[in-house]
Amino acid sequence: MSVPHALLALLSEGPKYGLQLREEFEAGTGEVWPLNVGQVYKTLGRLERDGLAESEENGQDGPQKRYRITPRGAEALAAWLRTPPDLTSPPRDELVMKVLVAARVPGTDVHEVILAHRLYLLELMQQWTRLKEGEARDDVSLALMVDAELFRLDAVIRWLDAADVRLARAAAEPPRRSPADAPVPQLRRLGARR
Amino acid sequence: MNGPERDADGSSAVRVLELRGVSKTYGQEPAAVHALAGVDLSVRAGEMVAVMGPSGSGKSTLLTIAGSLEDPTSGEVLVCGMALAGMPRGRRARLRRRVIGYVFQDFNLLPGLTAAENAALPLELDGVAVPKARAAGLAALDALGVAGRARWFPDQLSGGERQRVAIARAVVGDRRLLLADEPSGALDSVNAGEVMRLLHEACQRGVAAVVVTHDAQLAAWADRIVLLRDGRMTGTTTRPPGPESLLIPGETR
Fold this sequence. Notes:
The complex is a heterodimer. Chain A is mostly helical. Chain A has eight helices and three strands. In chain A, strands 1-3-2 form a three-stranded antiparallel beta sheet. The longest helix of chain B is centred in the C-terminal third of the chain and has 16 residues, at about 190-205. Chains A and B meet through helix 6 and helix 7 of A and helix 6, helix 7, strand 10 and helix 8 of B.
């Protein structure tokens, strides 16, 4: 989450005070991302230094100061919105590590480990869904946030499902197949479809 | 009727559906297929339970047995406290028509009937006088927010509206148990979520529901999620706390 750009987005609606920016930021993200006042003013200071925002000259300081976006700030915001985030390198995922480790630790049933995580994730999804059912019903920002979280958790559960099947299959099959047994035609067919 | 059963924890919520040690085997040994093995499941009035599992895990078998469309090989099935085993055929069919509502994957509305006629159909088939059945059908459409479409035919409705009518038909009259197999069919995720919202709202009005799905996002609408694998229940979620825990920074996150 880029706080500077989120603040620029709020300023693009018109000049605003620091406290107001904080309130609007939290409301706009369904209060799921809290932001402290210090962070707001530090960020505003940096935006001002970089010429992306400016404070109104009224001789006052601190909470009395209003900020507005500059043309350069508007350009930076537009460019940021269209720049894809860096998703190229996979994050080091704790859950992936746990399953990989569980598969190798003697005396550990990896399927049981997977089941425990699956249940926990489902309960988390139920909680997010309750939020969607209630408060997010009339709050599009919150609904978008909740959807993002649900899709993310859903992807993790699907990975667990796939891991479950893959590990069961690996345990049932001999570790290495002889070339004669390899399902070459099927692989070729799959490859051709892509 | 045996009267409402109460749980050891003192809960007075009626157990609308109860499976006790239900097993279902197709075919003969050694080629027998154990579709369900010793499943215990109890669903109370007002509760929505989602059954999740990979294909072939026994989800659909569980639903057909709960709907009294098939008998278990062993174990007991009780609907509203009444054991299905040994119930005369006619009484059982009546129970199925009056107490249980079904929501199908592809909605299954009859194309030649209006929304109101579709919604009233189960009651009319059950011998309820037409005006009374129609009134109940309209009330069900109203509860699902599609009363304004009462005179429309299925092909004039959007996918979301069709599914609302299908749910209205499933809850029409005094249904106590809703059974749904992948109820959101091919709808996109937002509309699929709407279907689950409507089913959950029906539960909040007092119906019990069992929803079979492989989709975690849809299952997450349920009050409880039960996992099936190879015909066995492998796990169940415990009732989650309210969503407010997600909003307190630094505590649960």
